[in-house]
Write a structure and sequence with these properties.
358 residues, 0% strand
């Protein structure tokens, strides 16, 4: 019997099966570890976090198993406690209260994740649930009311939990159950967006001075490309697998990860970006290459940026400046006008971009 040449197709198929099996076993081990951390219904979570905070942080950064993601998000955000402390409140808000934003919410529903099957059916279960959450929040917090960017947050949450659970997680984020409140992202004038963009611009200049200077020369500022990163926490226009991994970390560590991921995107594409003129530069900042959005590549880069202390310093500087030197007063009308455009057009631009992608 002579030597038989191996079939390349069968070799490749065998390698794929072996790889898939190894991935499955690795995922299985990860799920077992997470179930042990959480306990039945999340009963062991707080105790485990107190005893092993570094283990929890490391495992969250690696990615929460998808089958447990909804429960873990509720535990790490503090929304589970809000739900238990407010029985019947969500039902009352949905059924018995009225909102001045109802027509606006109805108009925007179909623009939120229009390519996702859960939200595609007009007046289907996905759109109805999203409407209920947004209407309930606009009543719960009438000072903030409804802003279209909230739909992307609520829509993402709905993919992993019930309406009521998603509502209380939205409340936890905007009201600051664990981390700093995010409601300033959606208040008139978008005050928190202004602050975050100011901080981000300075971080870019400090960590990547060559690119920062190039932005200055080409008259590119963060409001032109990074507003939606903060307003939707990367839940718009980025690959879903990256969005989920960012949200895993965001819910546990806070808004700093949005700065870190933004810096990582710029660092990954740095050598190309510094060569581009205005129009091509702006296009590149709104359309990152596929390899730049691989979470297993991007997140390790993001975590190399130690920004916590610097963000606190920049926040104090920003707030001190906003309180009122004569210089800041002279420039404030221009800033307000710019951010007003962001407030009225950025989110609508997101939806028009989304339509062009579908």
């Amino acid at each position: 019997m002579g030597f038989q040449k191996a079939d390349p197709y069968m070799i490749a198929k065998g390698a794929f099966v072996l790889f898939s099996f190894c991935c499955y076993r690795r995922e299985e081990r990860s799920i077992r570890k997470w179930r042990k951390m959480i306990g039945v219904g999340g009963n062991d979570w707080k105790h485990y976090v107190r005893r092993n905070p570094h283990v929890v942080k490391r495992r969250i950064r690696k990615g929460i198993p998808d089958c447990l993601r909804g429960l873990v998000w509720q535990l790490i955000s503090g929304s589970r406690d809000l739900l238990l402390m407010n029985p019947g409140v969500y039902e009352t808000l949905v059924i018995y209260e009225t909102s001045a934003s109802e027509l606006e919410i109805i108009r925007d529903i179909s623009r939120t994740f229009p390519s996702h099957i859960f939200f595609q059916q007009r007046h289907g279960p996905g759109q109805r649930s999203l409407y209920n959450i947004l209407k309930a929040y606009s009543v719960y917090d009438r000072d903030v009311g409804y802003v279209q960017g909230m739909g992307f947050l609520a829509g993402l949450l709905l993919l992993y939990m019930s309406e009521e659970d998603a509502f209380w997680l939205l409340v936890a984020l905007l009201k600051g159950a664990v981390h700093a409140p995010m409601e300033g992202l959606y208040q008139p004038g978008l005050p928190l967006v202004q602050q975050y963009l100011s901080q981000f611009e300075k971080l870019v200049m400090e960590h990547m001075p060559k690119l920062g200077q190039h932005f200055v020369e080409e008259m590119i500022n963060p409001s032109m490309y990074a507003s939606q990163w903060f307003i939707t926490v990367f839940s718009y226009s980025f690959p879903f697998h990256l969005t989920l991994r960012v949200w895993d970390v965001f819910l546990y560590e806070g808004i700093k990860v949005v700065f870190q991921v933004g810096l990582a995107l710029l660092r990954f594409c740095h050598d190309d970006l510094v060569k581009l003129p205005f129009e091509k530069l702006l296009h590149a900042l709104r359309n990152f290459p596929e390899e730049a959005t691989d979470p297993d590549v991007l997140l390790p880069i993001a975590f190399t940026f130690k920004v916590s202390n610097r963000l606190e310093e920049l926040q104090k500087e920003y707030q001190k400046g906003a309180e009122g030197t004569s210089s800041s007063k002279r420039h404030q009308p221009l800033i307000s006008k710019t951010m007003s455009r962001v407030g009225s057009r950025v989110i609508s631009n997101l939806t028009s971009d989304k339509k062009s992608q579908t």
